[in-house]
């Protein structure tokens, strides 16, 4: 069965992405230990697994199965992360984290019972893509999602560094971006038809290229937010928020944009929507009981810096320095999206900032030792 191959490819890609996210978190821990060489290697490998290898398997998987079928399997990685993070990263699996992870996994799996089985026989053609994608409801979805993105960017700038709300905003922004797999679904089907059946005529139309651009955009733009979140917050919190938001976004886009539940009985549609609502509630349950993960000395440094400010412009500068370097990343990718040099230039910038923070921490530690002496 085609969908089984799709599930296997997507689960493998998601597992690689989860391992890459843990490597990014581990790179931050190594940086705090002043092991900058190990930190750099882990960061590069983790980013490569999330930006290159993971999306590659996603594209292959979505060529075989629908988004409504594949979306729930992201919950598998929540379980994998919950099992291995206490051992690999030394993090504490609290009761609230365990319950939230379990709820998201169970409801994501249960949503498979309500999927519309008839959609597997439907074939994506250029005519169907025009009918499905060129609708007012798609435009409304895109506008609402753009508003959601802007609200989260505002929250990132206004929330205190290390706060639970800021961590949720980073994870939800990255996860919801990565979860918009409707572009990947359509582009992957057209690409597979062109490669296997030599049916390449749809690529002579502008719509598949717009969809492909959207797939690249969602895959790339989530990266700096994901990386910043994994560097500053524990994996047991951040991965759960990321994957939960991913599942919700994927499920909603499959429902609204791709119409993969059209024609399903009312009880299936109600059950599918109910699973999405429960997952959103589980994310709220997780966030409402999470404690700030930023060390108290960092918060004290921020407070002292804010109290010493005489002008508001300095506050704005400090906030912008801590923002995910999205524009630098997009600018580097836009130079040549098919060249590894563009990716490596952004990584070099990120590594330089890591080295700068590491050397600054080392200088502060040496200063404290001299003061104690």
Automatic annotation (TrEMBL):
Mode of membrane association: Multi-pass membrane protein
Question: Which parts of this chain are annotated as the region Disordered?
Answer: 349-373
Major localization class: membrane
The record's GO CC annotations read: membrane
At the top level, the lineage of the source is Eukaryota
Print the keywords alphabetically: Membrane, Transmembrane, Transmembrane helix
Q: Where in the cell is it found?
A: Membrane
The protein's matches in Pfam families, at most eight in alphabetical order, are given as:
Mg_trans_NIPA (PF05653)
Reply yes or no: does the keyword Repeat apply: no
User: Where does the sequence pass through the membrane?
Assistant: 6-24, 44-64, 70-90, 97-114, 134-155, 167-191, 203-223, 235-257, 269-287
Q: Which InterPro entries match?
A: EmrE-like (IPR037185), Mg_trans_NIPA (IPR008521)
Q: What is this protein called?
A: NIPA-like protein 2
Species of origin reads Cladocopium goreaui
